[in-house]
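lol ok so funny story. i was supposed to be doing the assay writeup but got distracted and ended up predicting the structure for this chain instead. priorities right. anyway since i did it might as well share w the group, maybe its usefull for someone
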Amino acid sequence: MKKILIIDDEELILTSLKMILMFLDEDYEFLLSRNGKEGLDRFKIEDNIKLVLLDYNMPEMNGLQVTQEMRAISKEVKIIMMSGNHDIKNKALSFGVNRFIEKPMELDIKELVLEELKENNGGENEEK
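and the output, tada:
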């Protein structure tokens, strides 16, 4: 089964994103992590992760550190970073995130996720 990893230290955001994305056209398993280190550890052991929704400001490891480690493992996985700090957008993109969303999120997150997943649709046999 294809997986989406959501990493955020705010429980409300974790559950809200999961609830919004549960209604995607395809079935996805949702993996939830409450800090950067936990999310990275999960990324390393799980297979078939197609998308990572990642907060920037978290305990233990920030989103840039997590992105850097994930990119060393996989160039293919789609990473969307979320942050209330617009000033880090260019740096996040230079670290390899596919998209940057500013919090509070006013755009349709479901449509954005579908767009990113569609770009990766041909890679059914990829590991992560």
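The chain has one domain: 3-119. The CA atoms of residues 63 and 78 lie 14 Å apart.
back to the writeup now i swear
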